[in-house]
Amino acid sequence: MHELAIVEALIEQVDRELHRAGQKGRVVELNLAVGRLSGVHSGSLRFAFELLSPGSVVEGARMNITEPQADCRCRDCGHTEPIDELVAQCPKCGGGNVVIEGGRQLTLDSIELEPNGP
Ligand SMILES: [Zn+2]
Known about the structure:
Number of helices: 2
Shape: elongated
CATH architecture of the largest domain: 2-Layer Sandwich
Radius of gyration: 18 Å
Strand content: 25-35%
Helix content: 25-40%
Bound molecules: zinc ion
Order of helices and strands: HEHEEEEE
């Protein structure tokens, strides 16, 4: 399950970001974008997160995952359509000259910290 390695890297990234920003607050939320074509299963990601977060900088944080769609664009007829899985043919004209755009990203969009007390 490569989601474990992904979450490990994610926690390291959060740690680095907090250090860089000089923040010491507790992390309450993480916002992730996991493209539908990224091959990453968000359920497994959550499972790995629960496994790895205790004792780390993101312990107790909530992980929000959005799953951006990909677009299939046809070079023959110009048709563009959102897709949930890879296609090799244009859904409209059946041509094979399609480009898949987006949907493969795996990014940490934002980190929300607990507001610091006075
Ligand atoms: Zn087409």
